[in-house]
Design brief:
The protein is α+β, with helices and mostly antiparallel strands. The protein folds into four domains: 55 residues, Phosphatidylinositol 3-kinase Catalytic Subunit, Chain A, domain 1 (Ubiquitin-like (UB roll), Roll); 61 residues, Ubiquitin-like (UB roll); 70 residues, Resuscitation-promoting factor rpfb fold; 114 residues, Barwin-like endoglucanases, CATH 2.40.40.10. The chain has six helices and 19 strands. Strands 5, 6, 7, 8, 11 and 12 form a six-stranded mixed sheet that branches. It has a six-stranded mixed barrel with strand order 14-18-15-17-16-19. It is rod-shaped. The N and C termini lie far apart (196 Å).
């Protein structure tokens, strides 16, 4: 027989064979201790881990996903400036989120449908009024910030069906409080008749004395019909463009016989001594004479008044320029070295005892130069 231990615990009983341990009798509660003391504790740990994972999946993960969609942007509207942390998707959503409303002519530096991205700077520019004066009539016009003069005028022309004239640079940016002046451009087509001067042809006449002329065929002026487009700005004419020229009446050329027969050498002196010998005269002058032709009158060929004298006659040999205070317009003359003439023109430099003789060519004028001549006033 084995003895019990000092603690009174019976460890072994005599069994079939000596030294073989025998299990002690199962006591109430032994199985419960085994379940919760080993496997039971592991089961509790697994349940706790599962609950933690489930909590993370339900509560923490959505917030983490949401946090990843937050964007930091700035919003500027006049004096209002705000740094925004937002989950808004578009510019329009951000404006709505911040209570920003847009009115007529207000603009945003991005499209309203533009997706928001990190760091975006949104600027709202408000429209403003300017004073617009069109042909003297005032009105208030609301425009967007950053509007230039040129594009604004083009838009007004398209809107109002008119063409406007203005003095400012098209590239100038319009500011709040500016006064804009516009003038309506209008066009009018006008048609009028203009006289066409006739040309003169001079033919040597051996039967006529030198200095004597005779009209063999009278010249007749022609007529033409001119159509022009006249542009008015604010009611005042600013330009005129020729559209067409139609000749309605052809001019008839004048033919003048010019005497080439040499007169007796003493003809002029006889005239001086005895006015009844060759011609009669009522007054005699000694004048400084120069010569001119159509090309020396300061007007270009084809321009208005080219080749036309102050009396309205076509410039030709035999017509001379005088000071009308000395010799009245239309006076018949005989000029020493030149022949018979008519006072039919004037000149800015022809004053007092000066006379300007018309020549056919510039070379004749240059050859004549300046001479002192006797001028006889015929009755």
């Amino acid at each position: 027989m084995l003895k019990t231990s000092a603690a009174g615990d019976e460890r072994f009983r005599a069994g079939p064979a000596a030294g073989v341990p025998a299990f002690r009798k199962r006591l109430p509660g032994d199985g419960l201790q085994k379940n919760f003391g080993g496997y039971g504790m592991r089961r509790k740990s697994l349940i706790a881990i599962f609950i933690a994972v489930l909590f993370t999946a339900i509560y923490i993960s959505p917030f983490s996903a949401a946090a990843s969609t937050y964007k930091l942007v700035t919003l500027e509207d006049g004096d209002f400036y705000k740094a925004c942390t937002t989950v808004a998707d578009t510019v329009a959503d951000l404006l709505k989120e911040n209570g920003v409303t847009l009115e007529d002519r207000d603009t945003v530096n991005f499209g309203l449908a533009e997706p928001l991205v990190q760091g975006m700077e949104i600027v709202v520019s408000r429209g403003f009024y300017v004073k617009l004066i069109v042909d003297g009539a005032e009105e208030q016009l609301k425009i967007s910030a950053g509007t230039q003069m040129g594009p604004l005028v083009l838009a007004l022309q398209k809107e109002r069906g008119k063409t406007f004239d203005y003095a400012e640079s098209p590239a100038r940016y319009i500011r709040k409080g500016d006064v804009l002046n516009l003038s309506s451009l209008t066009e009018k087509t006008v048609t009028y008749t203009r006289i066409i001067p006739f040309d003169s042809e001079y033919v040597d006449a051996p039967s006529l004395d030198v200095g004597v002329t005779e009209v063999a065929q009278a010249g007749v002026t022609g007529e033409c019909e001119i159509t022009e487009v006249v542009t008015y700005s604010g009611g005042m004419e600013v330009s005129r463009a020729q559209k067409s020229v139609t000749v309605t009446k052809e001019p008839v050329k004048e033919i003048v016989n010019v005497g080439v027969k040499l007169a007796p050498e003493n003809s002029v002196s006889t005239a001086q001594d005895d006015a009844s010998a060759d011609f009669e005269y009522v007054k005699e002058y000694e004048m400084s004479a120069t010569a001119y032709t159509a090309s020396t009158c300061g007007k270009a060929p084809g321009s208005r008044g080219y080749g036309v004298t102050a009396s309205g006659q076509k410039a030709r040999r035999g017509l001379v320029a005088v000071d009308t205070n000395v010799i009245p317009m239309g006076t018949k003359l005989f000029i020493e070295g030149y022949g018979y003439a008519e006072a039919a023109d004037t000149g800015g430099a022809i004053k007092g005892m000066k006379i300007d003789l018309y020549m056919d060519t510039l070379s004749e004028c240059l050859a004549f130069g300046r001479e002192t001549v006797k001028v006889y006033v015929l009755p």
